[in-house]
Amino acid sequence: MTQSSRLPGWTRGHVLAHLARNADALVNVLEGRPMYVSGEARDADIERDAPRPLDVQLADVRESAERLRAAGAVPADWSRTVELRNGVTDRAERVPFRRWVEVELHHVDLGIGYELEDLPADFTEREIAFLADRFAGHPDVPPTELSAADGRTWTTGGGAAGDPVGVAGTAADLLGWLAGRRDGSALTVKGGALPSLPPL
């Protein structure tokens, strides 16, 4: 598990360890506890678990996913507000989608042949919309209209001064740029330079 992943400074073992610990962290969220004890503890847990053999890693990913599934099966008010990492809040009903994002994007990050183009179409559309909403009104992002090759559009940015910018490309390339997985060089930009997006 020491092979490099596509995430700077992380091996594939780091990615799998993060996926397992993220599932446990989301159990904490659903049960009303802090997502992580601290940022330092989160990072230390990933470093501790990263060197484990593949069979141990996969067993941990599966078992932690089952713990999250069980926590999600408990009757609860899914409209309630929950607190995630770094003070971010969201509705409990959006936690499953956030987990889906972790699983799909980190599957790509492993660098084992699963690409952004292989993501389920409904996931790609939802994640583009989610990230477009996240950057909407951001003070460093100019008004930006995103256009996929199949005609779908989204708007984002708008907090920075400047004329509207149009960014077009395949849904996979748009998602890759928004999610920090691609540099946007495959996109077509009109009305200005490709906006520089803040880190997620």
Automatic annotation (TrEMBL):
Keywords from the UniProt entry: Isomerase
Sample GO molecular function, one term: metal ion binding
Domain MDMPI C-terminal: 118-198
Organism, scientific name: Streptomyces pilosus
InterPro entries, per the entry: DinB/YfiT-like, Maleyloyr_isom, MDMPI_C-term_domain, MDMPI_metal-binding, SCP2_sterol-bd_dom_sf
Name the UniProt record assigns to this protein: Maleylpyruvate isomerase
Domain of life: Bacteria
The Mycothiol-dependent maleylpyruvate isomerase metal-binding domain, residue ranges: 3-110
Classification via Pfam families: MDMPI_C, MDMPI_N
